[in-house]
Amino acid sequence: MHRQQWFIVALALLAGSSAGAQGRPGKAGPTPPGKTEPARLGAGIETRTLKNGLKIIVWPDQDIPNVSLYNFFRVGSRNERPGITGLSHFFEHMMFNGAKKFGPGQFDVVMEAAGGSNNASTSEDLTIYMDWFPRSALETIFELEGDRLAHLSFDAKSIESERGVVYSERRSVVDNDNMGALSEQVQATAFVAHPYQFTVIGWPSDIESWRLEDLQRFFQTYYAPNNATLVVAGAVTPAEIFALAEKHLGSIPAQPPPEPVRTKEPEQQGERRVLVRRAAQSPLLEVAYHGMDAKDPDLPALKLLLHILAEGESSRLHRRLVEEEQVAIHITQMFSLTFDPSLVWFIVDMPPGVDVARVEKLLGEELEKVRTQGVTDAELRKAKNITVASFWRGMETNSSRAYHLGTYELFLGDWRQLFEVPTRYEQVTREQLRKVAQRILNPDHRTVGVLLPTEEPPAPASKKEAGR
Amino acid sequence: MSGGMGRTVLAALLVATVAGAQGAGAAEPKKAGPTQGIQLPRTTVIELKNGTRLILAEKHEVPLISFSAWLRGGALGEPQGKEGLASLTGQLLLKGAGKRDARQFAEAVDGVGAQLDVSPDREALRVEGQFMSRDQALMVELLSDLLMRPRFEAGELEKLRERLASELVSAKDGDPRSLMSLYFFAFHFAGHPYGRPVTGSEASLPTLTREDVLAYAKAQLGGDRLIFSVVGDFDTQQLARRLEAALGGWARAGAPAPVAPPTTVAKGRRVLLVDKPDATQTYFWLGNTGIARGDPDRVEVSLANSVLGGRFTSLLNTELRVKSGLSYGASSVVMRETQPGAVAIASYTKTESTGKAIDLSLEVLTRFRREGLDDAMLSSAKAYVLGQFPPQLETSSQLASKLAELAFHGLDSKDVDGFAAEVESATREQLRQVIQRVVPAPEDLTLVLVGKASAIRDVARRYGPVTEMKLSDKSFAPVAAPRR
Predict the structure, then answer these.
(1) Choosing a second label site near B18 at 20 to 30 A (CA), which of A316, B68, B192, B453?
(2) CB-based contacts of B440: which residues, under 8 Å, 6+ apart?
(3) Active-site annotation holder among A37, A46, A80, A92
C-alpha cells in the first residue's frame, strides 16, 4: 500500500474497531464463558523493550498453528521532501532485495520454503512489514528479519530493477486509474506546507532519480530498532518471542532519534478546488476536509459521525445521493489514524453524464444539515453498533490482532487503548457529534476535486501508424 | 475500493482456496510444522423436507455469527441475451423484503452493525452475512424474508439496473486489472455459459425487465436450491430450530437446476486486443481451459500453480518482476467450477515493453512444461501451500463459505482434513503429468491484451490472429467473437 487512500481502507477497520460494548438486555444470544469481553480477550498479551530500544508486543493465541509478525517503522512520506518523494515506499521494496547472510532474492525464497509469506505497506506515517507463517518457521523468520535490519545491501542493479517495479505500480494505481489520479491531486492541493501533500508512491521525476546515498542515509536514520515496534500474534509464547528477538535483533545498535517533523499545516482560509481532465466515461468528485490527529479527543465522535454519513446503505449520503436523487453510484468516506492532522474524505462515484455541480451541492447540503441539526438517537445507536461489530471482526485473525495492537501502540501511544475503545465510543453523545461536525465540516477547510472527461477521447490510431 | 499492498503479487485465485479449519483450540503451542494438517470443525447437518440443507458449526471465540447461503443456479439460469439477470435479481433481494421496504431493510442491517451481501456467481447466487450473536433472531428473520418474501419493487429495480450499468462504466475508468477476467472469459468461453459476464454488460442490462426478474426468481429460487451454512457463537439446537421454522416452508424452485455443459481446451492461438487509447501500460492474460473443482489432481495442480505463478517467488514473478523489473506483478490463476474453468497467466507492463513481457511469459510457460520442477522447488511449494493453508480457514466467515462450497460441489471434509496428507505425498512425477495436462501449451493459447492499440497492434499480431474491440464498447465480447 502506498497511498493514503488505500491505507485508510485498512485503518477504517481499526478505527471502526472502536465502539460500544453495549448489550441489549433480553437480546443476548448464548455467550460462552470468558471469551467475549474485550479486556479478557487481550489477557495473555506481554511486552518487552530490548536494550537497543526495540519494543515487542506478543499476543499468544492457539486457534490455528500459525503466526503473524508485524514490524512497524515510524517512517513514511511525512518524512520526505521534494526530490525524494516516494522514497519511503521505494525503500520498503528494497528491504526485500538482499542482505549479508541471505543475498538477493533469498529473503522470499527462504521464507516461502519455510511455509511463510510476506508483504509490506507504506503510508504517510508508517512503513509496516508483515510476515505470515506456520509456527515451525519462527526461528527462520527472525533470522531473516535480523539479517536485513543489521546488514541490508544496496546493490545498484537491484535498485534499477526495483525502480521499474515501482513505476509499474504507479502506472496501475495512479496513471491508469482515474480515482488514483484525482486523489493524488486533491491531497497535493489540500496541504500547502505539511509533507502530507506528497503522494506516497512518489512523483514520477522523483521515482526516476532516487540515489544510492539517499537510500543509505534513509536506512541509517529510520531503520533503527528504537524507531520500530514489533508485534507478534498467534501460536507462540511471549517468552520464546522475547528470546528470539534478543538473539536475532538485540545486537543491532540504536541510532539517534530522527529529526521530528515540525511543520504544522496552517489553517485553511477558504475552499480550494482542483480540476483534473482525463479520458473517462464518468466524472468523479472528491471532497476532503482537514481533520485531526489520532490522539485528538474528538476522534471517536468523528468516526461515529462518518459512519452515520456514509457507512452502509442506510447512511445519510447513500440515501440522498444514491437512492433518492440517483446522481451517484457509491459514496465512500475515509479517515485514518495519523500522527498529524490528516484529511476526512468523501469520494463520490457518478454515472456518466451527471451534473457534477449538482452532486456537489447535494453533498454540501447534507453535510450542512448535520452541522446545524446534528444526528438522531437512532443514528448514534447504529453507529455505535457498527463500531462494536467491527471491533470483534478485527479480533478474528492473528493478522488483524497484530495490526490493531501495533497501530494503537503507535498512534495512541499504548496498545491497551485498543481494548478501551468500546467503552470510549459508548460514552460519545449526540452533542459531541454536533460539535465535531461543526468543527470538521467547515466549508472553508475543504478541498474539492473534480475529474471531468476530456471533451473527446484521444485521437484513435491513424491507419498509417497501425499498418506500419 | 481495491488497493494492492506494497509488493503483493497478483492474487492467486481459487486454487489456494482449499484450506483447513481451526486446530481444535489446543491450549499449548503445537510443535507443528508445515506437515501438520488442520481439520474442519464438527458440523451438524440437517436436511429439511423441501430439500434445503443446513450445516451448522459452533465457534465461540468472538461474539459473531457468520453464514453463507448458496443458491444453485446463478448466471447459468439466465436466458440468452439476459446477461446480468441473476445478478440483478440477487441484489434486489436486499432491496425490500417481508414487511420492510428497501430503506427499512438497510436500516435493520446497519442498525445492528451487521453485514449482509449478495454475490452473484456463474453457478450460484451466494448470500453471505455476519451478525453479532445477540442479533441471531433478527438475522434469521431478515434472511428468510429476503429469500422467501422479496418485494422486487419496480422503482428499486430500475434504480439498481441503472446503477449496475454505471458501475461497469466506472470500472472502465479505473484500474484495468479488475476487468481482465471478464474479457478473458467472454473471448475464451464464447458461446458457453462460462463466457457470459455475471455482472451483465452495458448492452444487456437495459433490456432487463421486472417480468424477467419475476420469471427468474420463480424458476431459479427455492428451498431445494439452498445450501445454508452457519459458523459462530450460537447454540446449535436453538439455531437449527429457528432455521427450520423459518426456511422449512420455502417452496421448491419452478425449474430444474441448470447444469453447465462441458468445456473444452481450445486449440491454436487467438488474440483479443481491447483498445484503451490513453493507457500507458498493457494488461494481459494468456491462458486456456484447465480443471474442474472436483478434479482428482486438484492438490497437485495447486502445487504446480504455486510454482508457476501462485506466490512471490514463482517462476513468473521472478522473471517479470524480480529479475527484469518489467512489472509490479505476474501471476497465474486456476479457476475451478463444476466444469473446467480458466487457467491463465496475468501480468502487465509499460506499453513499450509489451512484447518483451509476453515473450518472457511464454518462455516461462514453455520451460515449465518442459522441465517441470526440481526437488527443492517441490519441497518449497509443499511447505508454502501447507503453511499458508490454516489462515484461509481462520474466521467464522471463511469456515461458513468453505462448508457451503464443499456441499455445493458434492465434496466432503476430506478436501480440507486430508489436504496436508495429499500435499505431502505428491511426487515430482505426478506433478510432471499434471503440468502436461493442465498448464496450457504455448501453441494453444487465448491471449487478451488491454492497452493502447495504436502502439501495440503490431506486437499483438505476433501471437496469433487478432480480434479488436474498444474498452468503451458496451459488451465484453467482440462483435464477431468466434463461436465454439
Answers:
(1) B192
(2) B265, B286, B287, B288, B290, B343, B344, B365
(3) A92
